[in-house]
Amino acid sequence: MHDIVQDYYGRQLKSSSDLKTDACCDASAIPNWLKPLLANIHPEVLSRYYGCGLVCPPLLEGCRVLDLGCGSGRDVYLLSQLVGASGEVVGVDMTEEQLQVANQHLNYHVDKFGFNNVTFLHGYIEQLEELNLEPGSFDVIVSNCVVNLSTDKGAVLRGLHRLLKEGGEFYFSDVYADRRIPDALRTDPELVGECLGGALYWNDFLALTESSGFRDSRLMESRPLEVTNPALSARSGSVRYYSATYRLFKLAQLEKDCEDYGQAVVYKGSIPGSPHEFILDERHIIEKGRVFPVCGNTWRMLSETRMGPHFDFIGDFSQHFGLFPGCGREIPFLDGQRQSDGASKQCC
Ligand SMILES: C[S@@+](CC[C@H](N)C(=O)[O-])C[C@H]1O[C@@H](n2cnc3c(N)ncnc32)[C@H](O)[C@@H]1O
């Protein structure tokens, strides 16, 4: 699998336009505030972008960030500007040709930005412990269309969990499938190289995050992918693929489900670029000044992370009111009304 991927990204692909899906070609998805930063990046680096989403969470200034499978460095150079001179970005990739392009343009970006806060490392994301990076030393870890290519996704998640600080997050875009992908497709070199063959069934992904130490994964955005190459599309049959961006917080006290403790938060409107509302995830769009009821997990994601100073917090964990309405899973038991109308007599 590593050889197939290194050959695909090191030798076969020359630019984003060689890809056979629309995974990384959604130019409209780049927000206006990022466009000037993208314009500072060397054209060759931009042309070799093979990501499938945007991995730029807010509040990065001064952060230490790790990019898993950084390729030729587009996101590293974007993040370098966002963390600024007091922050640091480390990119890791296993394909020499990709890193060569990234390193070749290092001085170009140092001159443009006026500081050097970037390092590229050669290595495997399943073996992060080999890279001598200090455990618990990263505020944010990102990855753009890479985890699907990994031969041991559990090792990747466990390894990066170890490198994150408590309160840090893994913010990443990847490809998922609507079902478990049949073996014949999982080993098809072209489908693997195009980030389709190795895509996880979304529900297996959620189970894997839990067993790797992350609870309550939050979806930022998703979109269906179109396989634009007719031969690949035919081979894929009925499998549907999606590109999705998730954020996984390293917070030891997160619970499996969203529990209701009667808490609420108020956004101060102070996060740069988000004066009117803050988007924690696709289901939590928090307007400035509004008392916004939250579950215990959301409370911790906001209060025990770098977002904390930008919110006021109402309540505590002293009283529990059951599952948070509409957020956790619905209560599986029939209520008294329905039990007495005969439904309870049916077994199984
Ligand atoms: C689809 S490209 C994405 C590159 C980059 N993130 C971007 O957005 O342009 C996948 C990259 O992940 C790297 N990669 C795949 N599997 C890897 C692994 N197990 N360890 C390290 N790098 C890996 C490949 O070498 C390739 O550069």
From TrEMBL:
Looking up InterPro entries in the UniProt record yields: Arsenite_MeTrfase-like (IPR026669), Methyltranfer_dom (IPR025714), SAM-dependent_MTases_sf (IPR029063)
Quote the CDD domains the UniProt record gives. Answer: AdoMet_MTases
UniProt entry tagged with the keyword S-adenosyl-L-methionine: yes
Enzyme Commission code(s) on record: 2.1.1.137
Question: In the record, what terms sit under GO molecular function?
Answer: methyltransferase activity
Q: Which UniProt keywords are present, listed alphabetically?
A: Methyltransferase, S-adenosyl-L-methionine, Transferase
Q: Which reaction does it catalyse?
A: arsenic triglutathione + [thioredoxin]-dithiol + S-adenosyl-L-methionine + 2 H2O = methylarsonous acid + [thioredoxin]-disulfide + 3 glutathione + S-adenosyl-L-homocysteine + H(+); arsenic triglutathione + 3 [thioredoxin]-dithiol + 3 S-adenosyl-L-methionine = trimethylarsine + 3 [thioredoxin]-disulfide + 3 glutathione + 3 S-adenosyl-L-homocysteine + 3 H(+); arsenic triglutathione + 2 [thioredoxin]-dithiol + 2 S-adenosyl-L-methionine + H2O = dimethylarsinous acid + 2 [thioredoxin]-disulfide + 3 glutathione + 2 S-adenosyl-L-homocysteine + 2 H(+)
Q: Which family does it belong to?
A: Belongs to the methyltransferase superfamily. Arsenite methyltransferase family.
Q: Could you identify this protein by its name?
A: Arsenite methyltransferase
